[in-house]
Design the sequence.
């Protein structure tokens, strides 16, 4: 599928034409994965486009950069303004947003520090990552043979570009086996996350999700769903899970900025069934929130 193009990308302090947002082939990040990024969504609302939890995403972006000794050169509030500026320049009512900071051209070798830091913000129209049908009918997933990286190898707290090579292996494997997504276990064999999503199970009305200490990214959509679930008076527990917890769950669903809230129909061929009542309620409220229909969560939306 061809990537949709818009007019402008913000790059190192200025808006440039989409086709002109280029880097040198000897850019450090192309060779060593020395970059950090975010995935954010802007939604249409009755009051115009609004970005979901923009400041929190940019705070995580800054933390990721700082942990890799990268100075963005812009404070969080400036990056928030840049996102809004880029959306306005492209006249988009809703979009996906990709901030990226990376070590650029000027130095080669494993040590990234001598290379300069480049920062971009791109926006484009993008429907649900796993497809609109997946939001209704759910997806089939499989446990990957690839394990998630250890917390003392490439830390999951850093949303680094290089971390996602592991996810790519798992995604390719899942697709070749006929699954929409793969679920990675950590090195101890505990359930970790999808290739780009956090995972939840529902059993006897209780919602469980793996703790961050089991090696997963602390997702902002994950946190949002947990807060929404609490507001709906569902018990929510962070606890370690094993693969059989997925097989025997009443419901399983995944969350992420790109995927949003997606039911899981089966795991390794073990049929869980259509989206259950808890998943459907959480999904409905989540979409009401991001489209500005729930006043209690209005602070999560930052108007463009």
Sequence:
């Amino acid at each position: 599928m061809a990537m949709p193009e818009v007019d402008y990308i913000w790059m190192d302090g200025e808006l440039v034409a989409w086709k002109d947002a280029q880097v040198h082939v000897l850019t450090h990040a192309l060779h060593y994965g020395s970059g950090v990024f975010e995935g954010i969504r802007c939604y249409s609302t009755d009051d115009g486009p609004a970005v979901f939890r923009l400041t929190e995403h940019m705070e995580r972006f800054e933390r990721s950069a700082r942990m890799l000794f990268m100075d963005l050169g812009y404070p969080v509030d400036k990056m928030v303004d840049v996102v809004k500026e880029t959306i306005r320049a492209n006249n988009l009512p809703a979009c996906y947003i990709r901030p990226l900071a990376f070590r650029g051209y000027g130095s080669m070798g494993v040590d990234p520090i001598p290379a300069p830091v480049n920062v971009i913000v791109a926006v484009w129209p993008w429907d649900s990552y796993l497809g609109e049908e997946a939001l209704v009918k759910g997806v089939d997933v499989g446990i990957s043979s690839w394990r998630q990286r250890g917390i003392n190898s490439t830390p999951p707290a850093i949303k680094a570009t290089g971390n996602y090579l592991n996810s790519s292996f798992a995604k390719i494997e899942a697709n070749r086996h006929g699954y929409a997504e793969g679920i990675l276990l950590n090195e101890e064999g505990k359930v970790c996350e999808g290739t780009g999503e956090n995972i939840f199970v529902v059993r006897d009305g209780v919602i469980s999700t793996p703790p961050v200490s089991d090696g997963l990214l602390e997702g902002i959509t994950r946190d949002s769903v947990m807060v929404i679930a609490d507001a709906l008076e569902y018990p929510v527990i962070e606890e370690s899970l094993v693969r059989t917890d997925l097989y025997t769950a009443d419901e399983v669903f995944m969350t992420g900025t790109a995927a949003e809230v997606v039911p899981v129909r089966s795991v390794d061929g073990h049929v869980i069934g259509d989206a259950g009542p808890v998943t459907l309620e959480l999904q409905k409220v989540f979409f009401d929130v991001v489209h500005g229909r729930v006043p209690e969560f209005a602070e999560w939306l930052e108007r463009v």
User: Anything to note?
Assistant: Residues 40 and 97 are 5 Å apart (CA to CA). The first helix runs from residue 28 to 32.
